[in-house]
Amino acid sequence: MNVARKQIVLVGAPVDEGAGQRGCLMGPDAYRTAGLAGMLEALGHTVADHGNLAPAEVGPLRAPNPVLKNYRAYVGWTRALHDKAAGLGAASVFPIYLGGDHAMAAGSVSGQARAAAARNRPLFVLWLDAHSDFHTLESTASGNLHGTPLAFLCGLPGFDDLLGSPLEHTLKPENVEILGVRSIDREERDMLRGLGVGVSDMRRIDEEGIAPLLRPFLERVRAADGLLHVSLDVDFLDPEIAPAVGTTVPGGASFREAHLVMEMLHDSGLVTSLDLVELNPFLDERGRTARLMVDLAGSLFGRRVFDRPTRSF
Ligand SMILES: [Mn+2]
């Protein structure tokens, strides 16, 4: 078991322009209110809260597709988060990016990828999500940009505005594992298949169990001496236990499946950065989703569910 103390940095990313429903901008403060920092400190880690970021100033831009919503905001947030994440990735800290809708991962992950490349280590990404977020700016029908970050990160074309130049350190598609997915559009499926991204849907999780699906991926990260970024979307979880998300899809991960993933990630000692995304406190029930996400972070940082007294939710 890995019990190393970590220097954790919290970065608020109150992004909600990428989602179809507003409210994710309250996410970072909901995590703070739910006691994220104190919980991590109680586990023996040190925590520095860097507050909330603001989007970078962006000059005039024309959206490449008229259906896209809040395109300039996506560009501004991506640039601000990319710079912040590249800096944190170069330091010996563990950043937790507090979202914010999933559009923020375009910046957090690309910045971490840049830092990983500077350290000559491959970056692997575990994407825990009901959706694959693999639309291009052309293929999206909804225009909601939180459906596009993973396509950007894997180097699909059309995203050069995001950083003002082509993405230099793209993720290798085979270094990306999407777990828990249960809603993929046809265009996304074709692109995912063509590129060789790892995708385990809920049916596979039902049939094979979540641990045997995660384990080989972790072994590949270890064998490659890779860094591992985890991007945890609230809608990975079943809406019965995590209602505070604008994109609920029935049939998500259970409480135990989600904790097991986090415990395995902790035991692996491989995770170096984390996104907590899509929490919409406006849709929550007395903070239960925020508290569950904080609890899951606790498992990722070394807490055991069975060490705690039982309590009712
Ligand atoms: Mn997502």
From TrEMBL:
PROSITE patterns: ARGINASE_1, ARGINASE_2. Binds 2 manganese ions per subunit. The keyword Cytoplasm does not apply. Pathway: Nitrogen metabolism; urea cycle; L-ornithine and urea from L-arginine: step 1/1. Pfam families: Arginase. One of its GO terms (molecular function) is arginase activity. GO terms for cellular component: cytoplasm. Keywords: Arginine metabolism, Hydrolase, Manganese, Metal-binding. Mn(2+) binds at H102, D129, H131, D133, D233, D235. It comes from the Bacteria. InterPro entries: Arginase (IPR014033), Ureohydrolase (IPR006035), Ureohydrolase_dom_sf (IPR023696), Ureohydrolase_Mn_BS (IPR020855). Its cofactor is Mn(2+). One of its GO terms (biological process) is urea cycle. It is an enzyme of class 3 (hydrolase). Belongs to the arginase family. This is Arginase. The lineage of its organism: Bacteria, Pseudomonadati, Pseudomonadota, Alphaproteobacteria, Hyphomicrobiales.
